[in-house]
Design brief:
The chain is α+β, with helices and mostly antiparallel strands and 263 residues long. The chain contains 12 helices and 7 strands. It has 2 domains: 185 residues, Arc Repressor Mutant, subunit A, CATH 1.10.10; 46 residues, Alpha-Beta Plaits. It has a 4-stranded antiparallel beta sheet. The chain has a 3-stranded antiparallel beta sheet with strand order 1-3-2. Helix 2 packs across helix 9.
């Protein structure tokens, strides 16, 4: 791939949505650091985010925020800084891995319809809902990982084949579908190009794909994949992204540290 093609590919993926620097850093650490004790140096991190249009000052601000919020730990190693996820950051990353890297999203056998008793306020009903639930009305929702039925509520098996159009639109609004469709289309074009020869080019391209996929798929839980057709836009995007992960494999952190380019 010629350099201009690589830059165009990175820009095309980068433009699929907003780039929040702190979120990009979490994406990078979660992808490259495969155990809780691994670290990445400041120069490597800087070299990876630069092609995404992120300068060193913005990176420093993001790392400061992540340290303040308890997501990242930083230590000095000689003249350089090194960074890793905190225990809390690592635990949150591990919980997200099945949804981000899995072939079918979060594992769940069935989807259920939860209906709250009429005396519940909207806030009280929402407080009962597990993460990833899709509210259908003020006191009803689709859930996929509720361990027990809240007192006074009705929990019933849900048949996806019976969904009216308004439920489909509530589960996956057109805005969500359009974002997934855009990412899938852009990644499909990237996959038609040769793999970049340079290790950092290859890794930066992988990471910007992963960042936007992670940004989209972590907004919801398993309900969408369980009740929508197999070819819905989110499922197509997942297929393209998983192909991209094979096309652009995760590098060893040691290889990046040994080959970090000089500024």
């Amino acid at each position: 791939m010629q350099q201009v093609d690589l830059q165009e590919d990175i820009k095309a993926v980068r433009d699929c949505g907003p780039i929040k620097v702190w979120s990009v850093v979490v994406t990078i650490l979660g992808d490259l650091l495969q155990d809780e004790e691994s670290w990445v140096s400041g120069p490597v991190l800087d070299a990876l985010v630069r092609p995404l249009g992120i300068n060193n000052q913005a990176l420093r601000v993001a790392l400061h925020r992540l340290r303040r919020d308890g997501w990242v730990v930083t230590e000095k190693r000689g003249r350089m800084s090194a960074h890793r996820l905190s225990a809390e950051g690592w635990a949150a990353t591990e919980r997200a891995r099945p949804q981000v890297y899995g072939a079918k999203g979060k594992a769940a056998a069935t989807v259920s319809l939860l209906i709250g008793e009429p005396s519940l306020t909207v806030a009280e009903f929402e407080a009962l809902l597990p993460a990833g639930a899709v509210p259908l009305s003020t006191r009803s929702a689709l859930v996929s990982n509720l361990s027990e039925t809240p007192q006074g509520c009705l929990l019933s098996a849900f048949a996806p084949s019976d969904m009216p159009e308004w439920v489909t639109e509530t589960v996956a609004p057109q805005v969500m579908r359009a974002e997934y469709d855009e990412l899938a289309s852009v990644v499909e074009k990237v996959l038609a190009h040769p793999v970049p020869e340079d290790l950092f080019d290859r890794t930066s391209l992988r990471l910007v794909v992963l960042h936007h996929w992670r940004r989209l798929c972590l907004r919801h839980g398993a309900v969408q994949d369980l009740v929508l057709p197999r070819d819905w836009e989110g499922a197509r995007a997942r297929q393209m992204v998983l192909r991209a992960f094979q096309h652009l494999p995760r590098p060893k952190i040691d290889a990046l540290e040994q080959r970090v380019p000089l500024r």
